Amino acid sequence: MKELRLMKGNEAIAEGAIRAGADAYFGYPITPQSEVMEYLMMEKPHERTGMVILQAESEVASINMLYGAAGTGKRVMTSSSSPGISLMQEGISYMAGAELPCVLVNVVRGGPGLGTIQPSQSDYFQTTKGGGHGDYRLLTLAPAYVQEMYDFAALGFELAFKYRTPVMIQADGLIGQMMEKVEIGDQAARFTEFDQSWATTGKKGRERNIITSLDLDPARQEQHNIHLQAKYADIVKAEVRFEEIQTEDAEYLFVAYGSSARISQKAMQLARAKGIKVGLFRPITLWPFPTEQIDAISKRVKGILTVEQSAGQMIEDVKLASQCRVQVEHFGRMGGMVPSPEEVLEALEQKLIGG
Amino acid sequence: MDIKEIIKPENLVYKKTGLMTDNPLSYCPGCGHGTAHRLLMEVVDELGIVEDTIGVAPVGCSVLAYDFMNVDMQGAAHGRAPAVATGIKRCWPDKYVFTYQGDGDLAAIGTAETIHACNRGENITIIFINNGIYGMTGGQMAPTTLPGMRTTTSPYGREVEMMGNPLKITELIAQLPGVHYVTRHAVHTPRAVRKTKKAIFKAFEVQKEKKGLSFIEIVSNCNSGWKMEPVASNIWMEDNMFPFYELGDIKIDGQLVTK
Ligand SMILES: Cc1ncc(C[n+]2csc(CCOP(=O)(O)OP(=O)(O)O)c2C)c(N)n1
Ligand code: SF4
Ligand SMILES: [Mg+2]
């Protein structure tokens, strides 16, 4: 029989990482995700599986510890929330440049600045448009269920190693804090079966390995960038993930991810009860964005409402995807306010149906 | 004697270690970085630990250290080498891990990572090249720049009232319980070179015995940044740097050395 547990999102992702055979976690406390490291410390994975856990002195240190450990071919993870993720941007850019696999978790809270500890989705731009410097992309998974917090840990490692690139799991305070039933899988072997011939494990029976993002020769640095872009193009081709709910007969479409997708699903039910045919499109990968899929649906619907806990960030990608074919409007709350399904329905009626 | 007679195995007094690559050093002629590299690689070679050694290069003139050191290496972000080394060492506690860092890297932008890696007693070796200046970026003031010393960002000399005091980070970290061995050396004379090499040996022994962190400061010249000829820079270093950054052991076997 499958093992079921009632867990917080933050606990689920921690357990998911242990079960996925993670080798190390480095992090620094910040609300609303501190339970990730707290859970790991309570669970003593160093005894369960040999996984290393270390509380760093800052997010700058944790991302660089991740860099070092990832450079030795290990499965490594960190988690933080918005201000901490801002501090990590230099390190994330270095890891993308040096092609190091890792799983990053952002349990987003409201900003800007110290903002609030309440849930938000206002880091969409930072994550999907490159919060750090240089031409890189972050493969980004957006869980909407506590189960997905658990599942995406393993998926994150798989994708990170498949492409040798950092993977972001972009949750929000709501998904991190809420409790749901989680189906727990088996313990995976901790030793990574991935090719480690590139990693710095000591020069034994081969030439030395070097992990770096630096190449001062512009022609070679350009070649490296071309190589990275080719990899990102492969990711765009192969890794788009999304969920569609009742879009077949939909006249209007909600596009929402994470907790906003859950709220929008309820709003969709309220709308349908009133006879308004609404569907829900949930991007699961924020990058690569499900551009083609939204493009296709936009040909069938009368209007699209994006629902985000932000001033409207993902809406830009939805507009690009639908090529301004239909009216695309944004509804969002900010500063840690979570929209209610009724508000979402009202926004649909006012901005698209009545408008 | 002609040259053929001289080049015989029995006459060999010195040989370049195979752990230095054949890449031409990118350092200015006269700079201490190259000598420090060589000593470090000689020690790794002579200890026979190359298969188990992972180094971390900084951002600074020695950013390309991995072009010259023929061991597995990672290039860290500016100042973050101790955090990178922590990540490596925690995952591979039986490997030898070292960082090689300049004074701007270690004692300015990376101060937090330095102090905390030291305080946790990470079982690594830190080689710290203190040349009192930011060599790589063209000779700006460093945290270690002496009072009155001219740099491009202290063109009239370091004014302590305005720019603060030079930081003796080595004395500072020697206070931390996680740090086992702290010593300060130079590489500008054969005698200094021999002492430094001995210190590096000891540092790797400490690491082997898992006793905690060892920290070797090498006070070195930056003849380009100081705008001096190499020999003059070494004399200036002896006259000005050494009185402030006193050479010798600061902490041995976890005990502060009382002078
Ligand atoms: C985040 C960041 N800030 C600034 C720089 C520019 N920078 C490169 S090297 C350096 C100073 C290095 O000085 P030091 O560590 O003393 O090494 P040296 O060149 O003297 O050996 C600076 C400021 C950088 N690369 N990254
Ligand atoms: S700039 Fe200074 S530290 Fe850098 S290589 Fe030249 S002399 Fe050495
Ligand atoms: Mg310097």
Largest sheet of chain B: 8 strands, mixed
Backbone CA Rg of chain B:
18 Å
- The CATH architecture of the largest domain in chain A can be given as 3-Layer(aba) Sandwich
Q: Shape of chain A from CA axes? A: globular
Total domain units of chain B: 1
Q: Structural class, from helix and strand content of chain A? A: alpha/beta
> What's the arrangement of strands in the largest beta sheet of chain B?
2-1-3-4-8-7-9-10
What's the N-to-C terminus distance of chain A? 52 Å
Order of helices and strands of chain A: EHEHHEHEHEHEHEHEEHEEHEEHEHEH
Number of strands of chain B: 10
Reading the helices and strands of chain B in chain order gives HHEHEHEHHEEEHHEHEHHEE
Strand order of the largest sheet of chain A: 3-2-4-5-7-6-13
> Could you report the average pLDDT of chain B, rounded to the nearest whole number?
97
Helix content estimate of chain A? 40-55%
Gap from first CA to last CA of chain B: 51 Å
Short description:
Chain A has 355 residues and is α/β, with parallel strands linked by helices. Chain A contains 13 helices and 15 strands.
Question: What attributes characterize this protein structure?
Answer:
heterodimer; A: 355 residues; alpha/beta; Rossmann fold; 2 domains; 5-stranded mixed β-sheet; 15 strands; 41% helix; 21% strand; globular; B: 259 residues; 8-stranded mixed β-sheet; two-stranded antiparallel ribbon; 11 helices; 10 strands; binds thiamine diphosphate; binds iron/sulfur cluster; binds magnesium ion
Characterization of the model:
The complex is a heterodimer of chains A (355) and B (259). With 355 residues, chain A is α/β, with parallel strands linked by helices. Chain A is built from 13 helices and 15 strands. In chain A, strands 3-2-4-5-7-6-13 form a seven-stranded mixed β-sheet, with helices on both faces. A five-stranded mixed β-sheet of chain A has the order 10-12-11-14-15, with helices on both faces. In chain A, strands 1-8 form a two-stranded antiparallel ribbon. In chain A, helix 11 crosses helix 12. Chain A is globular and about 70 Å long. In chain A, 54% of the residues are buried. The mean pLDDT of chain A is 97. Chain B has 259 residues and is α/β, with parallel strands linked by helices. Chain B has a single domain (30-256), classed as Rossmann fold (3-Layer(aba) Sandwich), CATH 3.40.50. Chain B has helices spanning 3-6, 33-47, 65-68, 81-91, 103-109, 111-120, 160-163, 169-174, 190-208, 223-226, 230-244; strands spanning 53-57, 72-75, 96-102, 125-130, 133-134, 140-141, 179-186, 213-219, 248-252, 255-256. In chain B, a hairpin with a 2-residue loop joins strand 9 (248-252) and strand 10 (255-256). The radius of gyration of chain B is 18 Å and the shape is globular. The N and C termini of chain B lie far apart (51 Å). Chains A and B meet through helix 4, helix 5 and strand 9 of A and strand 1, strand 2, helix 4 and helix 6 of B. Thiamine diphosphate binds next to helix 5 and strand 5 of chain B.
